[in-house]
Amino acid sequence: MLTVAVQDAPVVLLAEDDEGHAILVQQILRDAGLGNRIHHFADGQAILDYLFRRGPAAQREANQSYVLLLDIRMPKVNGIEVLRQIKSSPELQKLPVIMLTTTDDPREVARCHELGCSVYIQKPVDYDKFSEAIRRLGLFILLLVVPPMTGDQ
């Protein structure tokens, strides 16, 4: 019988260029009881460098599980391109990617699903609805079982 060692708590990677949204998302997740480590990335290139272990900045750890909350509208590299590169990589393709964005364009929703996003969540504009959506997302993340990433890619 094959068993896979799974970390108890995946690291949450938050790719969000709006600093206010990023702070709010992190606080709401904490308030919902999510104790997972959270790493924030302000642009698409930074999250790609982290995941693909490029450059001098911090890089993902081997044998660690992750879940990515990904905005579409970001500087340097947009979220759809980030998603495409992740899902094209044999090493990263199983990474759960939750699109968390204000964009509700049906073509972009379809494109994200075609590229392999796990879930597409539209951020509500109303603060109370936004808070509730993120709180529920935190509860969902608490239940996730995610295999660790291995290898040197």
What can you see in these coordinates?
- The protein has 153 residues and is α/β, with parallel strands linked by helices.
- The chain is 38% helix and 15% strand.
- The protein has five helices and five strands; from the N terminus they run E-H-E-H-E-H-E-H-E-H.
- Helix 3 (79-88) packs parallel to helix 4.
- The chain starts with 10 loop residues before the first strand and ends in a 10-residue tail after the last helix.
Keywords:
alpha/beta; Rossmann fold; 153 residues; 5-stranded parallel beta sheet
List the helices and strands and how they pair.
Elements: E1 11-15, H1 19-31, E2 38-41, H2 44-51, E3 66-70, H3 79-88, E4 97-101, H4 106-115, E5 119-122, H5 127-143
Parallel strand pairs: 1-2, 1-3, 3-4, 4-5
Write a brief structural summary.
Helix content is 38%, strand content 15%. With 153 residues, the protein is of the alpha/beta class.
CATH class: Alpha Beta
Instruction: Summarize the helix and strand pattern as letters.
Output: EHEHEHEHEH
State the helicity in percent bands: 25-40%
CATH fold description: Rossmann fold
Uncertain residue ranges:
1-7
Second rung of CATH, namely the architecture: 3-Layer(aba) Sandwich
Number of helices: 5
Side-by-side strand order of the widest sheet: 2-1-3-4-5
Domain tally? 1
Integer average pLDDT: 89
Q: Structural class, from secondary structure content?
A: alpha/beta
Kindly report the name of the CATH homologous superfamily: Response regulator
Task: Give me the Rg, rounded.
Answer: 15 Å
Q: What fraction of the residues are assigned to beta strands by DSSP?
A: 15-25%
Form type: globular
| Count of distinct strands | 5
Biggest sheet layout: 5 strands, parallel
State the end-to-end CA separation: 27 Å
